[in-house]
Design a protein that fits this description.
Chain A is mainly α and 292 residues long. Helix content of chain A is 74%, strand content 0%. Chain B is globular, with a radius of gyration of 25 Å. The chains are: A mainly alpha (292), B mainly alpha (301), C alpha/beta (270).
Chain lengths: 292, 301, 270
Amino acid sequence: MTSWVETVSLTLPRRRRAARVFALACRLITWSGVVLLGVLLVHVSREGFQWLDWDFLTSFPSRFAERAGIKSALMGTLWLIGGTGAVSIPLGVAASIYLEEYARPGRIKSIIEINIANLAGVPSIVYGILGLALFVRGMALGRSVAAGALTMSLLILPVIVITSREAIRAVPGSIRQAAFALGATRWQVTRDHVLPAALPGILTGVILAMSRAIGETAPLIMIGALTYVAFLPRGPADSFTALPIQIFNWASRQQAEFHGLAAAGIIILLVVLFVMNGVAVYIRNRSQRKPQ
Amino acid sequence: MHFGLAGAARRRWKEGAIQSALFVCAVVSVVTTVGIVIILGKESFGFFRHVSPAEFLFGTRWTPLLEPRSFGVLPLLCGTLLVVAGSSLIAIPIGLVSAIYLGEYASDRIRRIVKPVLEVLAGIPTVVYGYFAVSFITPMLMKAIPATQVFNAASASIVVGIMILPMVASLCDDALRAVPQSLRQAAFALGATKYEVSTRIVVPGALSGVIGSFVLAVSRAVGETMAVTLAAGATPRMTLNPLESIQTMTSYIVQVSLGDTPAGTVEYQTIFAVGALLFAVTLAANLGAHRVLRRFREVYE
Amino acid sequence: MTLVHPMRPPTREPGSAPAGARSAILEVENLSIWYGDNRAINGVSLKIPEKRITAIIGPSGCGKSTLLRTFNRMNDFIPGLRCEGRVRFQNRDLFASGVDPVEVRLRIGMVFQKPNPFPKSIYDNVIWGPAINGFRGDRDRLVEESLTRAALWDEVKDRLKDSALGLSGGQQQRLCIARALAMQPEIILMDEPASSLDPRSTARIEDLLFELKKLYTIVIVTHNMQQAARVSDFTAFLESGELIEFGETEQVFTRPKVKRTEDYVTGRFG
């Protein structure tokens, strides 16, 4: 028997070449993503570094670029994050506890889960529209920190629920079983055993959700966070500005100095995000190393 | 020895109250969706009393803020489509190839460098990408192709592509890894090269997962706001030329909000009409993608 | 017109020669294999005879699969694997620097323990290997011939375009055999091909092997001693990576030369 394989040696070199080319192309293309990140960071640093000084952090925005700063934006972001956290963390964690520990499989549970999955994919600007109609006008909160915090809370709620659910699900069933066997109620089991075990995972998810909230601009524009704010908010009813809004405002101007200011603001923003993500990763790693 | 049976009723009541409270928190998500639908629907309804749905959906001029007023939304759809197409052209091939490389070729050490980089890229706020577009990409484009306008769709497309690339890479990576090793072994044993195994067996075997990731990325590009607002312009027009200034659905909504539009006017209602269209498109895309992804997961369980 | 290329055999003898004068198609010379620091195969030397069925038996973990996968360079995929010694296929060194593993696998095919058909149609499964390797002949005929030789043609001839995943376990394994046969290899390596199948499918595959050995050399790894005794002409007994005994099956099972072999085949351990 003569195999047809005898006749095909001619195509092997071509296939070998194709395989090598493809492997090289894969490597180049993948590393281009890394290179892009490098280019972006270098560009932002180069443009923004010169504008970064103590005055920048402690001044209000101004028509004059040399005197402009992000004090109000920073404080506004702080207020906003505080409010968002105060609303979304309890709501989100509570919802995830309900879905993981209490809800029985059925139509209601499916409806809630489908909703959360869909809401995670809704564009942030639609949340802005919702916030505008519901909080700013409907509940007459005006263009306030409160309206902003509530809108942002709704935006990041699905993220918190999804990550918290994963953290709770990762807690081994044996822990629950042992607690139940000792006669504990469901809430006692959850509060004293499940939540502490899931805490690192929940924290990580919360931090990541917050870092998303810090960077969001579109919803804040919709609810009317102002772009020229020369005062600091003193309460949840005050109007405010935020870091991404300020960056957006400067970036949309034509003059080069304002682009530099925008870059400086971006550096601050990225540093904050970097620190937050670093903390989240640290918590995750430490929890994985600890013996359970 | 007794166990406090008298407190049992109170304990039960407390447990019930806690469960109800938790349930209410969970239901907030449903309320949110209902709220979005009601609000978008109510104002859109008001809008469609002034403007016929046919004019809205099929008209090719969008000038709601200037006289003579025209409410055809196709230019906005066209602008969105242009940006989405451009960004998909970047994100989909690069994302898929990166996933193939990370899954089939790269060592653990390389994965440990590249994957976090992709995560960082995904976490950068969109306003930063918008700034990058106007301060770096656009000048470069204008130097390379003199016909490029100051505001153009291409610049926005490029950065939106970079923005959704990590999402495509990560989802495709998950999909490719779900293909069992035994299939690769069978293909290798038949004398296939790694290139052939990756492209003729692994990717086709993960096809619905890969397609699902593409659709999710496209949906994200449709909803993208800040990069297009900063870089793509505010000129609604029907064009396929990426070097021109255009306006997308999202950047129009921003433009109106930044201006002074009194509530109750038709201009104000355009926010909700366009918003409703945006919501419908992304919802359809997300539902489709999730159905495809769920079916894909079932095959490999 | 064909080019002479490295793996082309020098001569071919049609028909069968007497058992004693059987030529060795695969010669293993003092082969040792390490996984990192762990030595899995230790100084194995053996000659696989052509157009016969050779079984490799031994307790689990003794290195049978490792040895088998060396023959078609499937061990290349394991990082940290080191080989010493030589394996000659038709008098050519399999591990020589100029040898492309892809070419080796064109001539030495493999059937795996668990059936692993591609998520494609039955037809496409069989023709995939030849197609990507540049087969330009009559595809339908090759598919029919391969499926017939794998004793599957009658069952699937009317539904060649159906998905292979719809077949039963035994049918899928015969499909995998057909897929390997379509490459018209010299040797077919089988890594416990019936261990995940029910007894009836196992019996069908064993019947198949008797037919296949007229055309192909078969090396089969099995943990089932009765199967080895039923099916094979020659048996190699491996233990802890070492070749304890190799010879004609009848002799190894009834008059083993080494005590360890006798202990194993009589079931005293393993």
